[in-house]
Amino acid sequence: MKTKLETVKEVNIIRIVKEPSHIPVATDTRYNSMHIVSSKTGQNASQTISLACEQVTDHKFIVASVFHNKLCWTGSWLKGKGLNVTCPDGHAGTCTANVKPTNPSSEYLMGKEIGLDGMCTYDCGVVKVDDVRRFITGCSAVPPGGFDARFSIGFTEERKYPTVTTCTGEVVLPLYLKNYNTFKDIMIKSIDTGPGFGQI
Q: What is the set of domains in the chain, with CATH numbers?
């Protein structure tokens, strides 16, 4: 992935981008549990994988990934034998868990772990209708049959960036953004850094 990141930075340098290391990405996260497999948040996930794809080149390279695993079969087996063990790394041998079972499965936290802090820049500060469509639907063009889903807007009290569920066309806007210019700047950053899959 490091060579792919360098390739993207070289493209940014050729395009004379002010900050070549600022790379717009689209992220998507998959949640797995003992009972369900889902791309929706809030599930009782025991495993979570998040991928970040760059949006600079036509290749759309995967430039970062994070895998969280709450499962440890060795730990479960030892607990079944009556031993008091905790995972991760609470027993001798190889622990397959890398996060505590009580940790939340959060795309936001996984994005921060990848190194995406949502502060990528949009140099010209202009968003086109095509950019908004791609942000909400993940589609670079309107499909021949159009869109079958209705788009919806929701609101949250959480202090986070606007999020989009591309499968359902739902945009969730934070209510703390009271100032128009702040709202505009954050929307531009969200649209620019999050076209495609998942939530930012």
A: 1-70+105-122 (no CATH), 125-199 (3.30.2410.10)
